[in-house]
Amino acid sequence: MRGTDSYNESLFSTVRLEEFVPQTHPLRPIRTWMNEALSKMDTKFSAMYEADIKGGRPSIAPEKLMRAMLLQVLYSIRSERQLVEQISYNVLFRWFVGLSIEEAVWNHSVFSKNRDRLIEFDAVTDLFNATVETAHKRGLLSGEHFSVDGTMIHAWASHKSIRRKDGGDDDRPPGNWHGESRSNETHESKSDGESRLYRKSHAAPALPSYLGHVLTDNRHGLVVNVQASEANGRAEREVAADMLRDVSGSGVRITVGADKAYDTRGFVKACREYNVTPHVARNTKRTGGSAIDGRTTRHPGYALSQRKRKCIEQCFGWGKQIVPIRQVMVRGLEKVDQLLTLTMAAYNLTRLRALGFARPEGA
């Protein structure tokens, strides 16, 4: 017998959001891990709001905001407006964030108002560090063999925003720079003053940009350190040296694989000062020749590091394909660094899930 096309909605419902999410859904282990990590940050969250006026309206829970920010990365949601819209009608998103079916979703401007607060207290950095700690506890990090690389991140600014710092081109329309040389010493973006003109090669145009730097462990390609910086010709090596200094304090001799851009005497010297063996690809065309000689390249570990270092491109490819870090939609170095750090935390979580971190420890 044919059924009737009718719609009868009951006055009351006892359905739980938990029942809509399959037990095998990939967000389940990530949400469990996320709740454990956020519970350890409770003291920090309390300190974030202790300066607020007493008796005011309660804020949106920072735990909910950070779960929502992670969802935005994992599901490639372009803006906070679209994220709020998705949370309002997507049952899966409501369950992950921690909103009941009856609760109203906050306004998208809440993210903008709280972004500076989260930056001030390094909340996203703590979340990223928690992913590294989880990987370490489960024996997924070698702690001895690393790879380092950087990538260009386009700023949320266009060519037309580039103007002279002294105001000498205020009487000309934006973008009319033909026949005039531009440099970071004389020009800046009026949309994002912290971005810098940078290009990947002589054939590519110079664009307002930042640089993102990542240090990965060679065992499973997990990110162990991440940082955004101003875009210039020295930042890749300077930031890489700082990140290696942070991981070289254990007294164990470690190695780092890198491409030809790191084959400079300054970077190689800094590595050896930190007890790091620089497995850097040789750039024999550089003036003065390569800084790496046969004493390093003769060992089998050098060839292995050169193969492993290429895996670092996976986190950049994932971030630019899944997450909008090819061109960020925030302005300022601190906000770019926060978005890059959150992206690499999400990347680690997806890798950890693939490596079976949802299983109990020791299983």
Number of helices: 13
CATH topology of the largest domain: Nucleotidyltransferase, domain 5
Specify the oligomeric state: single chain
Average of pLDDT:
88
Please tell me how large the radius of gyration is. 24 Å
For the largest beta-sheet, the strand count, sense and barrel status come to:
6 strands, mixed
Share in helix = 25-40%
Secondary structure tally: strands: 8
Tell me the CATH superfamily of the largest domain: Ribonuclease H-like superfamily/Ribonuclease H
Assigned CATH class of the largest domain = Alpha Beta
Low-confidence stretches: 358-363
Structural class: alpha/beta
CATH architecture of the largest domain: 2-Layer Sandwich
Output the helix-strand order. HHHHHHHEEEEEEHEHEHHHH
Bulk shape: globular
Task: Give the number of domains.
Answer: 2
Strand fraction band?
5-15%
What is the end-to-end distance? 51 Å
How would you describe this structure to a colleague?
It is a single chain. This protein is of the alpha/beta class and 363 residues long. It is 40% helix and 13% strand. It is built from 13 helices and 8 strands. The chain has helices at residues 27-39, 42-49, 62-74, 80-89, 91-97, 109-120, 123-137, 235-247, 265-273, 294-297, 300-308, 313-322, 333-354, and strands spanning 145-154, 162-164, 187-189, 196-198, 207-217, 223-230, 254-258, 276-280. Helix 3 packs across helix 13 (333-354), helix 4 crosses helix 5 and helix 7 (123-137) packs parallel to helix 13 (333-354).
Quick overview of this protein structure:
This protein is of the alpha/beta class and 363 residues long. It has two domains: 17-121, no CATH class; 142-171 and 183-330, Nucleotidyltransferase, domain 5 (2-Layer Sandwich). 40% of the residues lie in helices and 13% in strands.
